[in-house]
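Annotated sample (chain length 79).
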Amino acid sequence: MKLTIGMTFTGNEQCFTGRVEVLEIDELNNRLRVGLTVKHETFFSNWNEDWNLEHTIFGFENGSYFVKEFTDYPGYVKN
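Output written by the structure step:
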């Protein structure tokens, strides 16, 4: 699985089920910077985190994560 900046994905019920957007890929340090968005009943929560790049790729390989286009979520808002 090749991750690209700007791609969006989500996870199955055992993983993060909101919108994940790849913001930065740092292969040298095995780091993935992601923007996360969760939809609540009346609002959205946005934040960013550093994830382990290899673990995220493995999540795609084992079916925990899958690519998804989000039409009902706003794009990640960088603060």
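Annotation: Residues 8-67 form one domain.
Annotation: DSSP finds one helix and five strands in the chain.
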